[in-house]
Amino acid sequence: MAVGSGALPELHPVAGVKIAIGSAGIKKPGRKDLVLFELAEGSTTAAVFTQNRFCAAPVQVAREHLKSGSPRYLLINTGNANAGTGQRGMQAARRSCEAVAELTGCKASEVLPFSTGVIGETLPLAKIEAALPTLPASLNEGLWLDAAHGIMTTDTRPKAWSAKVEGTPYTVTGISKGAGMIKPNMATMLGFAATDAPVSADVLQSLLSDIAERSFNRITVDGDTSTNDACVLVATGKAGGELIDSSDAPHYQALQAALLELFTVLAQAIVRDGEGATKFVAVKVEGGANRAECLKAAFTVAESPLVKTALFASDPNWGRILAALGRAGIDDLDVEKVTVSINGVVVAEAGGLAESYTEAAGQAAMAPEELTICIYLDRGDASETVWTTDFSHDYVTINASYRS
Amino acid sequence: MAVGSGALPELHPVAGVKIAIGSAGIKKPGRKDLVLFELAEGSTTAAVFTQNRFCAAPVQVAREHLKSGSPRYLLINTGNANAGTGQRGMQAARRSCEAVAELTGCKASEVLPFSTGVIGETLPLAKIEAALPTLPASLNEGLWLDAAHGIMTTDTRPKAWSAKVEGTPYTVTGISKGAGMIKPNMATMLGFAATDAPVSADVLQSLLSDIAERSFNRITVDGDTSTNDACVLVATGKAGGELIDSSDAPHYQALQAALLELFTVLAQAIVRDGEGATKFVAVKVEGGANRAECLKAAFTVAESPLVKTALFASDPNWGRILAALGRAGIDDLDVEKVTVSINGVVVAEAGGLAESYTEAAGQAAMAPEELTICIYLDRGDASETVWTTDFSHDYVTINASYRS
Questions:
Q1: What are the pLDDT tens digits along chain B (404 aa)?
Q2: Taking a contact as any Cβ pair under 8 Å apart, which residues of chain A between 3 and 42 contact chain B?
Q3: Given an 8 Å threshold on Cβ–Cβ distance, is A310 in contact with B400?
Q4: If exposure means fewest CB atoms within 10 Å of the residue's CB, which of A17, A149, B255, B267 is most exposed?
């Protein structure tokens, strides 16, 4: 199951970014499970990674390599997360970078490795090394959709977005994947995006950190932060023009807006394809004293198993929303002041059922696949929005049978 | 579904506590849904209530009444939580106390009201008032099992425990209920226990607070703290003997131990009957720097949807346990030092699969209905244990069809 059509726009190539797809047979024979990105010399690359203390070997190696200079290649495999694999996992991640370096003539430290799939199984390095040699010759700018397919695990469909940045010569294109173990903390597993704009490394990293915080870090499927989350943004500069090296530079605002839209679409695409999802839900908390408490409230409601099963049942169960809100850790919350609406229908006010509420209106509000739950706290001017899914039988089925 | 036989021991009456059961037809006609406790004059009563900011009208009224003196009656209804019902709910809770006072000759402030069931629907006061008059005449010391039945909602079986306190003339007996919206914070909906020991009000309250913290506050079914949690401990003093007014008093230690066992059994009974439960799981975190971080780790693992679905599948998925641990908020956690065992089989060590692990041993360890997941952090001497259940299809079915 997944919410919405999942139709993708035209994916514009980004000058300076080439892609190749391979099949290493990591989990299943014949499946496209390897993706190689080549980044033109002179590109700048920014990345954010999972804050999970138990982070995968490739995340550790990618962090290390990023420090030593600008990457030329990104190597991504699915079917195996290379997490919880100890020193052997670290060696495998390093060795896969060396293999790319040997084939392409770059340094191993100019390759960033990414893995997604089963935790705790040894990365089948020999299979990857056997599949790699065919890739460099097939590198091509037009393979973003293939790459989106190539990084899927329990995803039911590819996730991608692309746009020409208005009023500028620039393009932005990106892909993402993920369906379960989704509550990114600094980034999500996996997002890759590129622009042909020329952007300095500092500005690119601060753009990415800010935008990831407002997009990937605002989604949750099951509250389980992955061990492998990683999000990468590349600026090749191939479109030319003045270097964007500060927020006052020409086109900075337009590029920022386009990247925010790109990342928001990619992050929401992960929620729409959340494991077992039948609903796409925005939980909007307004009127908070500060953004931190709005976020706490929004995530607590979005992750409550009782709220999520009510969403699955299309039940306008505002009592469960208020109960979740009541345990969100806002010590001096006055529930009598809280108003809750679902798709515009006020369901609760003054700590109880809204006077104007009718069961028919509530049922009608809950019926659509896409919902907005709006919670007004009446404590200040801060607001935050988090996107989530419901909790269905298919979530249990998928996770009782798939060993992540 | 539920875990274990659910067989109950003999429930000893507690001198000074009488019980009556009634049928008000609150949710379904004919169901036993009213329980009245009468406490002998001179009894002391301690109580702890939910810390959810969105707390039910009866919780607010019970707190108020407790302040003004020692209660003589406890009135409990199921089928309606009287939560999220605003001023009308407060009036209904107060009025139900007045009705008991009129029938029994006590003051309304000597009655504590308790409700459990659907949130957000008006309490059908007229039905309760109509059913109450038959109750006082049927008050009887031998009805603890009937009371355990009378307070059930989605529970599949009654929960009760009773013991003669060794080396003392005292008896302790108690009942509890609850299956979903279970992560008590200071107490759980609902626990009622009594002893015939003579205990001063101060000592009784501190005994209850301490014991509730170590029993009810260590269980979680779905992480959703209820709006109606309440736990009451009555000491009638009818067994006579010296007043227990300090922790140095004779019999204090024995009584404390008996009450801790009573509350632990009652709390665990709620987990064993958790909504859709097929497993009863102790998550034990040892070697922590302090108890707070052990608790954070234990609750994060116990509430992870991915860990819970793996438990449902009897899958020894240690990767999900480590992933949950990694996001538990222990900032300087060194995953390389963590050891995880399931029912004594070491599954993970040094951040990866244990050398000694075999899949056959892992599968065998996961097979039983009752499991202990032991997580050793190697950071200090603190430890904590939390009890929980798995996440099954039935949890989704129950909560997609029951409006709590």
A1: 688 888 899 999 999 999 999 999 999 898 999 999 999 999 999 999 988 888 899 999 999 999 998 999 999 999 999 998 888 999 999 999 999 999 999 999 999 999 998 888 889 999 999 999 999 999 999 999 999 999 998 889 999 999 999 999 999 999 999 888 888 875 566 888 999 999 999 999 999 998 888 888 888 888 888 888 888 899 999 999 899 999 999 899 999 999 999 999 999 999 999 989 999 999 999 999 999 999 999 999 999 999 999 999 999 999 999 999 999 999 899 988 999 999 999 999 988 889 999 999 999 999 999 999 999 999 999 999 999 999 999 999 988 886 65
A2: none
A3: yes
A4: A149
What's the confidence (pLDDT) of residue A262?
92
Residues 6+ away with beta carbon under 8 Å from B292: none
CATH architecture of B280-401: Roll (3.10)
Assign residue A332 a region (left: φ > 0; alpha: ψ between -120 and 50; beta: otherwise): alpha
Residues of chain B with Cβ-Cβ distance to A296 below 8 Å are none
> How is the beta sheet containing A17-22 ordered, strand by strand?
A17-22, A34-39, A73-80, A111-118
Nearest to A233 by CA among A11, A7, A22, A39: A39
Catalytic-role residue among B45, B188, B225, B300: B188
How far apart are the CA of B315 and the nearest CA of chain A, in angstroms? 8
In chain B, residues under CATH classification 3.60.70.12 are: 17-272
Q: What contacts A56, CB < 8 A, 6 or more positions away? A: A50, A81, A82, A83, A84, A85, A89, A115, A119, A227, A228
Distances (CA, A) of B133 to A66, B72, B128: 77, 17, 9
Task: Locate CATH 3.10.20.340 in chain B.
Answer: 280-401
In this structure, chain A runs to a length of 404
Distance from CA of B85 to the nearest CA of A (A): 5
Catalytic site residue B45?
no
Using DSSP bridges, classify how beta strands B219-220 and A17-22 pair: parallel, antiparallel or unpaired: unpaired
What is the 3 state secondary structure string of B376-398? Answer: ECCCCCEEEEEEEECCCHHHHHH
Is the confidence metric ipTM above 0.85 for this complex?
Answer: no
CATH class for the region spanning A17-272: alpha beta
Residues from chain B contacting residue A320 (CB–CB below 8 Å): 119, 181, 224, 404
CA dist list (Å): B78 to B31, B81, B83, B85, B157: 10, 7, 12, 16, 15
**Per-residue burial over A327-339, b = 16 or more CB atoms within 10 Å of its CB, e = otherwise:** bbebeebebeebb
> How far apart are the C-alpha atoms of A76 and A58, rounded to whole Å?
10
Q: Which residue has the tokens 């104007």?
A: A356
Tokens of A29: 């024979």
Please indicate if the annotation marks B171 as binding a ligand. Answer: no
pLDDT in the model for residue B383? 96
